Amino acid sequence: xxxxxxxxxADLVIGVERRPGAGETVLGSDLAVHPGGKGANQAVAxxxxxxxxxxxxxxxxxxxxxxxxxxxxxxxxxxxxxxxxGAPTGVALIxxxxxxxxxxxxxxxxxxxxxxxxxxxxTSLFHASRVVSTQLEIPLETVVEVVRNLAPGSRFxxxxxxxxxxxxxxxxxCDPLIVNEHEAKVILGExxxxxxxxxxxxxxxxxxxxxxxxxxxxxxxxVASSPTDVTRVASVKVxxxxxxxxxxxxxxxxxxxxxAGASLADAAAYASRVGAVAVTRQGAQDSFPTARExxxx
Length: 297
Ligand code: ADP
Prior knowledge:
By secondary structure, this protein is α/β, with parallel strands linked by helices.
C-alpha cells in the first residue's frame, strides 16, 4: 500500500488579458476552483491507477477542505489521515494570461500546520505502507519525522518540490529521490559542476540517496542506483496540451509500481506512460489516467 504525506490546496484560477500592476485592478474570467497541491495530486493519481492509497495531510474546516476531501474520496483514497482544522485550507491563487503563462501566489495555510506530532500520531498508516511518498509543500521538520517513522522494510520516495537544500538524514532515506532539471540544480547547489543530466544522476547519488530519478519532460527520464549505472528511460511521444501535474502523476505512478515490486527502470517506464497521458489533457487531477487508459496508450 502507498502512503502519500503532503499538501492539499485549492487552486483558484482566473484567466486575464494581462496581469495587474501595483495599485491596478483588471477584470478576469469566471473563477475556476480545482483540487490540487502535490500531496493531494499524487494520492489521486496513484488511486486512479489502482494503488491502495492513503493521504496524510491537513486541510482547513472550510469549503475548500471539503472539496479536497471529496475529490480524494471520489478517487478511492483512504482519507482517515486527512486532518481538519488549525488554519484555512492551503490556496494557490493563479492567473493565466492568453499565452498560457501562470502567475501564482500560494498560501500554505493548513499545510504549514502539518506537524511532526501529526506524523507520529499516524503510526498505523505507516505500518500499513510499503511505500511512503512525500514532497516539500509541508514543513521540512515534518518530512524529517516521516523518515524517522518509516516502518521496517518500507521504501521512501521524495520529490523535493519546491526545492531547497535537504538534510543528510532525509537524502539518505530516498529510494529514489525524484527531481526535474530545476530541482536537480537546487539540490546539487555548489556540487552542480556539469550541464549534463547524465552527470547530475551521479552527483546527486554522491549526496546520499539510494537511488535517483531525473525527469526531463518530453526527453524522458534518467534512473540510477549507482553512478556507473545510469539508464535512460524513453518518454512517450504525445501532443502535450497542459503539463500541470505531470510530475505528480509520474511520481505517484513510480511509487505505485515500486510498491508492486517493479525494478526502478520498469517503474520509471510505466510512470513515463502515465505522465504522457497526463500532459495530453487539461488540468492536474482531471488529467490523471486509469490503468486501462495507460495500457491503451
Ligand atoms: P515536472 O512536471 O515535475 O517539471 P517533467 O516536466 O520532467 O516534471 O515531467 C514529468 C514526466 O512527465 C516526464 O518524465 C515525462 O515522463 C512526462 N512528460 C512531461 N512532459 C511530457 C511531454 N511533453 N511528452 C511526453 N511526456 C512528458
